[in-house]
Design a protein that fits this description.
The protein has 16 helices and 14 strands. The protein has a four-stranded antiparallel β-sheet with strand order 3-4-13-14. Strands 6-11-9-10 form a four-stranded antiparallel β-sheet, with helices on one face. It has a two-stranded antiparallel ribbon with strand order 1-2. It starts with 6 loop residues before the first strand and ends in a 73-residue tail after the last strand.
Length: 687
């Protein structure tokens, strides 16, 4: 069964008439959906056991009764045993690479895909309605559809389809997060909304009240989805291999963006060290697919072609060796599945052995003939080796048949030893033993090397203990990180009815809307309008009726009569005011207030259900950022005074407060949080 896309019947607030994509049906009986369901179940059991352990440890500290201590210690041993079993189950799920492989894949080594991070449901309804009522002075119930659309989009991101549509779905939600942050997440007020995400490797939950964890986790899932797309590609075709290469490079690019942008994410699977390892692994798999793409049309049995493929294989082996070295570093080795490090070690030996086999074939199957380009062969062979055995030169090896055979046999012996080492490592991991395709490929490669050695073995020959030199890795197409364009999707703000973000945002403060009665005198309203959205009152005549009714310099007009005009420009508002008679018309205005926070609040991160609180009081902000006070101005021509006075242009006397979307303000920057907690950080089972 393929990934299903289900419409939910709710129109997109982008007003394009399209439907939301709900991703995969969570009840579809696909291998991937079953795997994610098991992952979610294990995560829930892990958090339950961690809560029990935290309670037992607190009781152990509080009690002085020896009998109670003995009971608690016994209970703790059971809990820790259960946690270790659950961690083993989660490792097994992360090792289930066969679920992500192409169903037609029978001749390629399996590739590792990242599993999606799991999260809990989040209810935005009540907090957002309260903020809309209290902060924006609007009826929160009138935004039920917009809130439902946002919640539906987030729910869909939990089960994205394994294709570009699924990536676009995640990118769409990711693009909505900065807009949502500007609307509802104030630096001086906590919303009471908790975002909980589970560590992809250990299942440890991390909870935060700001959106940094949410953004980082969505980026991680985008990279994971690209890795699954690459794994699913048909690597028996050029098109499929190109799709796999592009997907793994995009996964590496997103992970690198995550590493550089979110440097203090409390979940260890998104720590800099772990992300660096994952980036290497994605690039290694992309390089492996590049090698397969080169070999897919067939490797020509020619001297130059064989040496080229030897260096390409050596490059794949070198990159996988770097991946393996990063996986066995502490504490990464305690968090990644043993299957992953074993697989990278198997591939390191396998591709290194293939490189030696290709060099052996070039030496044993091809002799330097009169028609061959001697200089070109010498140059090519010298680029294969970093250093040759003492007393030998590339030209001697090429010209002397005995030397050529000795070098060739040395390479084939090293290839046999490498294949045997790969098979030995394969047998050590019980998760690898389930991959029969991998075992068949390793055995076939080993048998091919043995046959090559047998073909060139002579009975009268003495045993030669010459060691084959290392092969220099080289590639014509190096895998590079690629940041996909889908990370930046243009979306329409769900809550645009609240007004332009430059004015109506969570960090700005303004008065409640006031009703002002406009009564023109000789078609002059007594003020001019500034060309912004919403329009701003400037050059106010302090003696006009509107000023007497409470209109102030710098006020924003948000409604004219029953018409909302937050998004209207000067010409549109003028059109509404043009036909005002002597009886006048009511307008609604708001006045901006000082938006500087009185005292930064505290924020908390919960990791493993244990609070880690830090203060933001130490964060400084510049007093120069305050909005400039209004200056006294003389009366200028009104937009409502038609005739010659209309030709005069009004000048602004106020500076509009702007919204800093870049997060440059010090209190907008995500505060550093750390996943460590004394109650579980000492347990090697988790970290």
């Amino acid at each position: 069964m393929t990934d299903a896309i289900l419409p939910n019947g709710i129109k997109d607030s982008g007003r394009d008439g399209s439907y939301f994509k709900k991703g995969c049906n969570p009840f579809a009986q696909t291998g991937r959906s079953k795997l994610q369901s098991k992952r979610a179940s294990v995560n829930q059991q892990i958090i339950k056991q961690m809560r029990m352990r935290a309670g037992a440890e607190n009781l152990l500290k509080a009690t002085s009764n020896n009998k109670v201590k003995e009971m608690v210690l016994l209970e703790l041993s059971y809990v820790n045993s259960n946690l270790q079993l659950l961690m083993g189950q989660l490792e097994g799920l992360n090792s289930s690479v066969e679920v992500y492989q192409n169903t037609q894949e029978t001749a390629n080594i399996p590739i590792i895909a990242l599993g999606l991070k799991e999260t809990k449901d989040v209810d935005f309804s009540t907090p957002f309605k309260d903020i809309i009522l209290e902060h924006y002075s609007e009826d929160g119930n009138s935004f039920e559809d917009e809130i439902a659309d946002l919640m539906d989009l987030r729910q869909a991101c939990r089960t994205p389809s394994r294709n570009e549509a699924g990536v676009e779905l995640l990118a769409k939600y990711f693009s909505h997060l900065p807009l949502m942050e500007s609307r509802f997440f104030s630096p001086t007020r906590l919303t009471g909304i908790f975002f909980t995400w589970y560590d992809s490797f250990t299942g440890v939950p991390v909870c935060q009240q700001n959106l940094s964890l949410e953004k980082a986790s969505i980026l991680f899932n985008m990279a994971a989805l690209y890795s699954q797309i690459g794994t699913r590609s048909d690597r028996q075709t050029i098109v499929g291999l190109e799709e796999a290469i592009s997907s793994f490079q995009k996964a590496a690019g997103i992970l690198n963006h995550l590493k550089e942008t979110f440097t203090h994410t409390p979940s260890y699977d998104m720590s800099p060290a772990m992300l660096s390892m994952l980036i290497r692994m994605m690039l290694a798999q992309a390089q492996e697919c590049l090698f397969e793409k080169t070999a897919l049309p067939g490797i020509r049995n020619q001297f130059f072609s064989l040496l080229k493929m030897a260096q390409e294989a050596a490059k794949v082996s070198e990159i996988y060796d770097q991946v393996h070295q990063s996986m066995i570093q502490t504490p990464i080795k305690d968090n990644v599945p043993f299957f992953w490090s074993t697989m990278s070690q198997v591939k390191t030996n396998h591709y290194r052995s293939m490189a030696h086999y290709f060099v052996a074939s070039a030496m044993l199957d091809h002799q330097l003939g009169p028609s061959d380009d001697e200089d070109q062969q010498e140059k090519t062979l010298s680029q294969v080796y970093d250093c040759l055995p003492e007393g030998r030169s590339p030209l001697d090896i090429l010209k002397k048949k005995d030397e050529r055979e000795r070098i060739g046999k040395a390479h084939i012996r090293r290839a046999i030893l490498g294949h045997e080492e790969a098979l030995r490592i394969y047998s050590l991991c019980h998760h690898l033993n389930k991959l029969e395709v991998l075992q068949d490929i390793l055995k076939a490669s080993h048998k091919r090397s043995l046959n090559k050695y047998t073909e060139n073995e002579r009975e009268e020959e003495f045993t030669d203990y010459m060691e084959a030199p290392d092969i220099i890795s080289k590639t014509e197409h190096r895998a590079e990180m690629e940041v996909p364009a889908t990370t930046k999707v243009k979306v329409t703000d769900f809550f645009q009815r609240l007004g332009p973000l430059s004015v109506f945002s969570a960090k700005q403060r303004w008065t409640a809307p006031r009703t002002i009665r406009l009564c023109p005198e000789d078609r002059d309203l007594g003020f001019t309008l500034k060309s912004e959205t919403p329009v701003q009152v400037v050059s106010l005549d302090p003696l006009c009726p509107a000023a007497a009714d409470g209109l102030k310099e710098g006020d924003y007009i948000v409604a004219v009569g029953d018409t909302d005009c937050k998004w209207m420009g000067v010409s549109e508002v003028m059109r509404l005011l043009k036909d005002v008679n002597e009886e006048g018309i009511d307008i609604q205005v708001v006045s901006m207030m000082d938006s500087n926070p009185p005292m930064p609040t505290k924020s908390a991160t919960f990791c493993g259900n244990l609070p880690k609180t830090y203060s933001m009081i130490c964060l400084a902000y510049d007093d120069d950022d305050k909005n400039p006070k209004s200056r006294k101005v003389t009366k200028k021509s009104s937009f409502m005074s038609w005739g010659l006075k209309n030709k005069l242009k009004s000048a602004s006397t106020l500076s509009l407060p702007t919204s800093d979307h870049s997060g440059a303000l010090p209190w907008n920057k995500p505060c550093p949080t750390f996943p460590s907690s004394s109650s579980y950080n000492n347990d090697s089972v988790l970290y």
